[in-house]
Design a protein that fits this description.
Elements (H helix, E strand, L loop, with lengths): L2 E7 L6 H4 L10 E6 L6 H7 L4 E2 L6 H11 L4 E5 L10 H9 L4 E5 L16 H17 L13 E4 H7 L8 H11 L4 E5 L14 H18 L4
Parallel strand pairs: 1-2, 1-4, 2-3, 5-7
Antiparallel strand pairs: 4-6, 5-6
Helix pairs in contact: 5-7, 5-8, 7-8
Bound molecules: guanosine-5'-triphosphate and magnesium ion.
The site of magnesium ion has 5 residues, from loops.
Length: 229
């Protein structure tokens, strides 16, 4: 199985150098980055470490996922965001799950043994919203084992699954759309617990209210499409 590791970046020069050396780069046939138009030296940093960087036509993570799949012919693709949230030690586990036959593998922040960034506080708005969207997706579409973290971007997918899902969402909702479509198609989704770390500098571009509205719209659209993926 040919493997590709894709690093997703948009202005991550503060966090990226703190994470980069921990990224296991020798276990995939190719490693490259898709960049959303960084203007802070992120691109140059990656290139100085011999990581090829591809741009994308429009901004947004949805566009980045599609650009990445168009750049590689690999059958197993893992997406990694180097802002501190994701533990590079989980990258091999994602590849292993795909090799073992999973169509999509997700590092879950919500299952037993996992840790979510907000778990240090009793006030967990992002986690609660995540769980609510997860419950909606599982109830509406899932016929397999319950998926605990339907929106996490830290995941691996097989090329075949990506092509069947044909996700067309533009921004941060792409992962949620992929999970819903994988459920509709009856694909094999495998999760394992992960520990979400804090952002190590830089800024999030996912503002809560607009992102929440896009999530609602996407859920509604998938409901209206019915069983079609
Ligand atoms: N290629 C690409 N990557 C992006 C784009 N927008 C965001 N990213 C990356 O996607 C990852 C997740 O984005 P964040 O802004 O951290 O969103 P978040 O994880 O919900 O927010 P935080 O909790 O603050 O980290 C980061 O590594 C970003 O650099 C984009 O348009 N293109
Ligand atoms: Mg983040």
């Amino acid at each position: 199985m040919k493997r590709a590791l894709v690093i997703l970046t948009f202005n991550e020069i503060e966090a990226l150098p703190k994470v980069f050396d921990r990224i296991p780069r020798d276990l995939s046939h190719e490693v490259f980055a898709v960049d959303g138009g960084s203007a802070d030296g992120t691109r140059q940093f990656l290139e100085s470490r011999r990581v090829p960087v591809f741009g994308q036509e429009r901004r947004g993570r949805g566009e980045a996922f599609r650009a990445a799949m168009a750049k590689t012919a690999a059958d197993a693709v893992v997406f990694f965001s180097p802002d501190g949230n994701e533990d590079p030690a989980d990258i091999p586990k994602l590849f292993e799950a795909l090799e073992a036959g999973a169509d999509m593998a997700i590092a879950s922040r919500m299952m037993k043994g996992a840790f979510n960034e907000e778990d240090i506080s009793w006030w967990r708005p992002r986690k609660w919203v995540n769980l609510a969207f997860g419950l909606a997706a599982n109830t509406a579409f899932n016929r397999g084992p319950f998926v605990t973290d339907t929106i996490n971007g830290f995941r691996g997918i097989s090329r075949e699954a990506f092509e069947r899902m044909a996700p067309d969402a533009a921004g941060f909702v792409i992962e949620y759309q992929m999970t819903m479509r994988a459920m509709k198609l009856g694909l094999d989704i495998v999760e394992f617990p992960t520990r979400e770390g804090p952002r190590l500098g830089g800024h999030s571009t996912a503002s809560a209210i607009p992102t929440g509205i896009v999530f609602l719209k996407t859920l509604w659209r998938e409901l209206r499409r019915g069983r079609r993926a």
